Each structure stands twice: as C-alpha cells, then as structure tokens.
Fold Stage 0 sporulation protein A homolog.
Amino acid sequence: MRLLLVEDDKTIALGLEYSLAQEGFEVTICYDMASALEKISVTDFDFALLDIALPDGNGFDICRKLKMKGDTPVIFLTARDDEGSVVMGLDIGADDYITKPFRIRELQSRIRSVLRRTHKSAEDGTVLHYGNVTVNIAEGKVRKNGNDVFLTALEYRLLLILINNEGRIVTRNQLIESIWDVSGDFVNDNTLTVYIKRLREKIEDDPQNPTIIKTVRGLGYQI
C-alpha cells in the first residue's frame, strides 16, 4: 500500500518511515509542499499522513489536491491543538488528525481505523445496528426496539451522512453543506441544531445524554 508522508522534520519523518514500513506500507517522504504536489501528480497514493505547517505552504492545500484527484484517506499530523486547525482539516475532507507528540502505536491504530472505514464494502451488510436501533440501508427504514421509526427525508439524509462517516467527526459546516430542506434551500446553523435534536428524540433512549449521535464539543458530531 502506497503511503505519502509529508513532514518537514526529517528526524520524525525517518522514524515514521521505518515504523510504517514494518507495517507493510511503501512510504514516500516529502519534506515540503512543492515536492508533495509533484509526487501526487504522478502517483496514486492509498493513504496520506500530512503535517499541517510546512516551510513553503501547509498540509491543507495538499489534502485538497488529494481529494480532488480521488478519495485518498488523510490523517493530519499537527503540533497545533487549537479548534480552528482541527475543524478546517476536517472540513476539507481529512479523515482524522493526531496531535504531536504521539506514540507510534496510537498512529498505527488510527490508520487501521480509517482504513476499516474507507474500505468497508458497500455490500458488507445493509442492516446496521446501533444499540437497540437498526438502519436498513437497502429498504431505507429505521427501527427502534423492532418498531418502525418515522424520519422525515431530511432527518434520514442527516442520519445517513453520519452513518457514512461512522467513527469520524463530521463538522457542523460539513453537515450544513450536505443537506438542504424540502424547498431546496440550504439548512442554516440554527436549523441544523433543531434537526439534530429531533433526530435524537426519535432514536436515542435519553436524548439529553445521547449514545448514538455524540457531540464532539467545538468540532461537530460523531456516530
């Protein structure tokens, strides 16, 4: 599996290259944005680890380029733990992020988790289970304790977006850009809050303490 590693700290990069090679990855290292963009133009990568702060740019632009070319899974490596950087990375399509310093085992676990999500085959079960709630994708039906749960078209669309990103944080901006109301108008921030509340009231046992659709404070939501 071809993995693109973009990291300007050569000590960190070489250490990661060695560890990831032991996991079976074919690692290509780039120390700046220019060389990374050049590699992307001629090589299809199966995974990417991107540092955010680079000497000639940032990992956000590299992520955008990867996502324009295909749906390459991306994890950001960042020394920044402020919400702005994290939210921006997730908004442009990153699958996860990890804050330096980190343990290599934690990174390996994150990579495996992202790969499981992104490589899950479409026919790998059309009935999904979340506690006492089941979602039958093929039939477009949601049941709780065996009883049908009526969801509006927008509520169901919202639930599917979260399901399709299972385990991954979906920011409010991503949700707002992905759903619209029945008249074709985009949903605004306040309306999204209302729909999340209604959806929880229908599928959660305790909407005030949700266990299915969880809030990741300052970032978004996660199934």
Summary: The CA atoms of residues 52 and 59 lie 4 Å apart. The mean pLDDT is 85. The helical segments are 10-22, 33-42, 59-69, 83-91, 104-118, 153-164, 172-178, 189-203. DSSP finds eight helices and 14 strands in the chain.
